[in-house]
């Protein structure tokens, strides 16, 4: 990560298999970053996320899901258990990253940046719960933060608009 990150390309993430991956290859794509959990009341949103992924992936849309166990211990499993759960229950085919913290001193750097770029209600920097979503444009800039209660289908209009916008 650079000293003063400008966009999502300035970060790396760890895949669920432990492999480090640069997020620079996401430039030129519209990306939805989500902190997820398998035992949360919002877990059924995986279905809507998968539907968005399947509908728009061929147009340059990606979803990056980061499992997180910081909210009520709702993601207790290891990487294999999480991946299996998501595949069996939701047919998930978009990338699952390794489990991360999204708040506190050990928060993943990409989440520190996302929260600074798109604060929550009343300027809050912390993430309040699982399934907080951040929409990133083709230039790697954060466009909007969505609450856990915002269902994936409610984001479709914003995603489609970014996909239709000319690349700068």
Q: What characterizes the major β-sheet? A: 4 strands, mixed
- Reported by name, the CATH topology is Glutaredoxin
Spatial strand sequence of the major β-sheet: 4-3-5-6
What is Rg?
A: 15 Å
Approximate shape: globular
How many structural domains in the coordinates?
Answer: 1
Question: What does the model show?
Answer:
The protein is an alpha+beta fold and 168 residues long. It has a single domain, classed as 3-Layer(aba) Sandwich (Glutaredoxin). The strands form two sheets. It has a four-stranded mixed sheet with strand order 4-3-5-6, with helices on both faces.
Task: Describe what is shown at a glance.
The chain has 168 residues and is α+β, with helices and mostly antiparallel strands. The protein contains four helices and six strands.
Topology summary:
Elements: E1 12-14, E2 20-22, E3 30-36, H1 45-56, E4 61-67, H2 79-90, H3 109-117, E5 133-136, E6 142-146, H4 156-164
Properties at a glance:
Glutathione peroxidase; Glutathione_peroxidase; two-stranded antiparallel sheet; globular; 25% helix; peroxidase activity; 17% strand; Glutaredoxin; alpha+beta; 4-stranded mixed sheet; Thioredoxin-like_sf; single chain; 168 residues; 4 helices
């Amino acid at each position: 990560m650079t000293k003063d990150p400008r966009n999502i390309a300035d970060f790396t993430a760890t895949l669920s298999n432990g492999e480090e991956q640069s997020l620079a290859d996401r430039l030129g794509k519209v990306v939805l970053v989500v902190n997820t959990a398998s035992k949360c009341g919002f877990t059924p949103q995986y279905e809507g996320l998968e539907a968005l992924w399947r509908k728009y992936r061929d147009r340059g849309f990606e979803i990056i899901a980061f499992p997180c166990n910081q909210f009520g211990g709702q993601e207790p499993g290891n990487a294999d258990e999480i991946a299996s759960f998501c595949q069996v229950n939701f047919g998930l085919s978009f990338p699952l990253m390794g489990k991360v913290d999204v708040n506190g001193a050990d928060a993943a750097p990409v989440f520190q940046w996302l929260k600074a770029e798109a604060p929550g209600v009343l300027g809050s920097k912390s993430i309040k719960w699982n399934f907080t979503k951040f929409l990133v444009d083709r230039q790697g800039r954060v466009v909007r933060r969505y609450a856990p209660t915002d269902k994936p289908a409610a984001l479709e209009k914003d995603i489609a608009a970014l996909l239709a916008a000319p690349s700068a």
